[in-house]
Write a structure and sequence with these properties.
Elements lengths: L1 H19 L7 H5 L4 E6 L2 E6 L3 E11 L3 E10 L4 E9 L10 H20 L21 E5 L3 H17 L3 E4 L2
Length: 175
Amino acid sequence: MQTMRSLFSLLLLCVFASAQTPAPSPSPSSTANQPKFWRANLPGGAYLVALGNIQSISTHEYTIEPLMRITEMTLETNGPVVARFYYVETVTPQAPAGVGQSAIDLLKEKTEQVAAAAVAAGGKPPWQRVIKTYPTTTHAHTVEYRLDSKEQVQQLFNSAMKCWTTGKGDAFTLE
């Protein structure tokens, strides 16, 4: 009986001793080594990248003659995938001295009619979707997201740059 009390007392002492010992907190060096991420939540999907894997972030504008202007952000990583986030807008070219302008305007009108038919059928106009035609526009190791405005491209760029330059992860969401 005395041995049983001693074992019970020893057991209680161990329980109280372990309850008084605080759990070790992570050392600053272990939390500093945890990867930080930038995440873009977009209507067409989500993109996630570790900040340490980003090699470059750029924005630029270019024209695909004669009717489309592209505003694009490109995010390159040290892996095989490049992410492209872009906005496409139609441009009405101006004919020199007005010669042929009616033909250009007619082409734009027909393009808008095709877009309206796509919307009426429950889709989006072609310039509001990512469209790839194999093999002409299929890009190996490229992830593409089409945005609704130049402003969204700029907001996305600002968010990615802030995370990358400060080293603090974050999530950016477009509704």
